[in-house]
Amino acid sequence: MNVGKAVTLGDVASVAGVSLSTASRALSGGGRISEETRQRVKDASDRLGFQPNALARSFALGRSQTIGVLTQNASGVFTAPVLIGATMELGRNNQALLIRDARFDAATLTENVARLQARRIDGVVMIGDGLSYSVPSVTSLFRVPVTYAFGLTSERDDVSFNPDAEMAGRLAAEHLMDTGRRRIAHITASLDDPAARGRAKGFGDAMAERGLSPVGERPLAGDWTFGWGVEAAARLLASGTEVDAVFCGNDQIAFGAESAIRAAGLEVPRDIALVGVDNWEAMVTEGAARLTSIDPCLQDVGAAAARALLSTDGVLPGVNLVPCRLIVRSSTTS
């Protein structure tokens, strides 16, 4: 075979000792072909480095193998891993992408939708910027499947994928109790926020299952900021309430709480253990992370939305929860 010459399907068929049509069916996954023949064709394809012509394949399948991706805030710290997860999953499935960002502008989103409507696409993934922001439903604007990631829409039948907020609270509570902590407080954002509300519920339920209650019975609720973490932790310590751990609704609150705890002459985790949510340090710093945190697995969220879009089995409408995981660091273990 000449150097530089593109490998053709005919070359694969010849090496595998099958007809051109058999080779085509074997590589596309269709047709009544024995597994032995299918594997022989695949081995020949891999050995020769055969790359199917994407355009020809799309015509044969009756699909464009192109997916539209709409984002509300592509540059957001938390949106970025969701987008990465979706694009990697689509890439693994040989899908081309058309990505358009609205930058939280309704007019831009409308324009982006129109641009995708004018293209031959097989589906749309709409990526929000977290549960704190409503995601506009665009399902009715397309004749192809639409899935949503990292956000809630107003339409109950929209297929969306989000981190499991209750699981985050539950994992935090169980970890702190497993390390011997019993007087655990909760500092978070307003419980009007779906993420804060879900995390608080999972936290409270897990403690109740072991016969315990959070310190103060109700969370100290403010906002998602470092400053609120400082203020709330200082208030908690000044009240004289006995506390040996704090579950913080996000990592920024936890960093603020840590600052207040150290300012009071106490040590983390010897005197008070801390758990946050977001795994922020792992995302934005290159140094050694110190805060035990619940990772919402945002890449998994994006990948799940992409897989659902490509699935032929169908996905139940509504909110689908993606598991998160506990990352243990020095703020809870000496």
Structural write-up:
With 334 residues, the protein is of the alpha/beta class. It has helices at 9-16, 20-28, 35-48, 54-61, 79-92, 106-117, 165-178, 194-209, 226-238, 251-263, 280-284, 298-310; strands at residues 66-71, 96-101, 123-127, 146-149, 159-163, 184-189, 220-222, 245-248, 273-277, 292-295, 318-322, 325-327. The chain has 3 domains: 9-52, 434 Repressor (Amino-terminal Domain) (Orthogonal Bundle); 66-164 and 298-324, Rossmann fold (3-Layer(aba) Sandwich); 165-295, Response regulator (Rossmann fold). Helices cover 42% and strands 17% of the residues. Helix 2 packs across helix 3, helix 5 (79-92) runs parallel beside helix 12 and helix 7 (165-178) runs parallel beside helix 8.
Quick take:
With 334 residues, this protein is α/β, with parallel strands linked by helices. 42% of the residues lie in helices and 17% in strands.
Strand tally, please?
A: 12
Give the C-level CATH assignment of the largest domain.
Answer: Alpha Beta
As for the number of domains, it is 3
Radius of gyration, whole Å: 25 Å
Largest sheet data: 6 strands, parallel
CATH architecture of the largest domain: 3-Layer(aba) Sandwich
Helices and strands in order, then pairings?
Elements: H1 9-16, H2 20-28, H3 35-48, H4 54-61, E1 66-71, H5 79-92, E2 96-101, H6 106-117, E3 123-127, E4 146-149, E5 159-163, H7 165-178, E6 184-189, H8 194-209, E7 220-222, H9 226-238, E8 245-248, H10 251-263, E9 273-277, H11 280-284, E10 292-295, H12 298-310, E11 318-322, E12 325-327
Parallel strand pairs: 1-2, 1-3, 3-4, 4-5, 5-11, 6-7, 6-8, 8-9, 9-10
Antiparallel strand pairs: 10-12
Helix pairs in contact: 1-2, 1-3, 2-3, 5-12, 7-8, 9-10
